[in-house]
Amino acid sequence: MNDSGVTYAATGSGVLSGQQTRFLAPPQPPRSGEPRVNRQPDSAVHAPDVLDTSLSTRTINAATDIIRWLVDNRLGVAKLFGALVVPAQFVRLDPPCQDRMNEACTHINQNSNHRMHLDIAKHGDTWLKVAVCYPPDWPVLDASRCVLYHNPNAIVTANYLERHYDHAGSSGQDGGDFRPRYRHQGLKKPTNDRDTCIAHSPGIIQNMRKCPVIFYDYRGAGMNEQATPLFPTCETIVQDGQAALHYALSHFDQVEIFGTSVGGAVATASLDRYQYSPDTFRDRIKSVNVLDSFSDTSHVPFPRLGDWIKTVGWLFGAELDGKKHLNSLISKGFNVAVSNHTHDEVIPPEARLATQIPIQDVSRPNVQVHLSGRKTNTNRYKNHGTLTDDVQDFLSRGR
Questions:
Q1: In this predicted model, what pLDDT tens digit does every residue of 265-284 receive, in sequence order?
Q2: What is the pLDDT of residues 121-137, one digit of tens each?
Q3: For 248-261, what is each residue's pLDDT tens digit?
Q4: Which residue of 78, 265, 311, 355 is most buried, as measured by CB atoms within 10 A?
Q5: CB atoms within 10 A of CB 365
């Protein structure tokens, strides 16, 4: 029985298909029509009240943890650079992101027959809240395919939701206080080809692929906000990407990966560093789509410096090398598609990933590259990270 009181049948349900037995993670219980209720790991529930260890052992463990933290975070400097890589940790919404996500998962607030639920992704020591949005009329027990979307910076999951005020509203039980209600219509989509922005991307992708979209916030931001500030680093966001990837592979048979801006580097790094042999799951990754991403973080502010700047970035915990991981994925045989805008206001030409792929790799059958000359209406939106119509055509080609 799950936490919502629904009893799962291990056999005869038709949910645990022959394909699902190939999942890398332990088989998950069949999904019911209702979203599962999240719960903390058993260790958090059944932890002993008193640790039976000596004072000296606890002191040594505490000192070791401090030293490890200082090394991993470069004496704390990596946290400062993480603030630049993931400024979404400073985004504050009213109501908060978590409240908006919970609101969207409440059936009474949903329109357009879409369904959305929150869940927990776990990989190694990483525990992460993720959201799954199903398109209208998607069969409840269909786990055939999905899209995994890795966030750009400066945006949180709540920004992706189409949220409309219900003028009818509702009143309190005593009939006195007026309480507004917001109806959710799934993921945002632009009203026309020119009115597109980065917050529309998951909605546009779902409209193209007609399947569930998994999206999430990096730890320290949005619905994964931490009590302590300056939480994310270049390393933690890759670990988050691995947790989200593991969740997608554990719940769906085929996964198509998208990543925008820093999310593109997370998409390549998390997949390349995933602990399983690529031969065991490569056929389950339909493609990796990297949109308006960079060669590496160090060359974004210093595009004309040599490769030595990457070493400096690594010393300060500020290096995320999307190009290295992309080249590795290409050599492993994964299908990759890379697109960059030529009118990008954020990433300089020398650091755009699409221009950094070697000529011999561009000619490979598993590689597609696109440079978008289409310019958005800059009076309203920037070009960086937007899915302009030519980028959408590129992503739809041969799919």
A1: 999 999 999 978 777 888 99
A2: 999 889 999 999 999 88
A3: 999 999 999 999 99
A4: 265
A5: 7
Cis check: omega of the bond before 95, within 30 degrees of 0 = yes
Residue among 335, 205, 172, 186 nearest 268 (CA) = 335
Query: What is the strand order of the sheet 367-372 is part of?
Result: 115-123, 126-134, 213-216, 145-150, 254-260, 285-291, 336-341, 367-372
Closest CA to 211 of 325, 114, 326: 114
38-47, 133-142, 259-268, 324-333: least confidently modelled range: 38-47
Residues 6+ apart with CB under 8 A from 46: none
CA triple 169-174-176, angle to 5 deg: 55
DSSP 346: S
Chain position carrying tokens 């792929």 = 357
Q: In the chain, how long is the greatest CA-to-CA distance?
A: 71
Question: Could you give phi then psi for residue 38, rounded to 5 degrees?
Answer: -70, 150
Provide the whole-model pTM: 0.81
Q: Which residue in 345, 332, 342, 344 sits closest to 369, CA to CA? A: 342
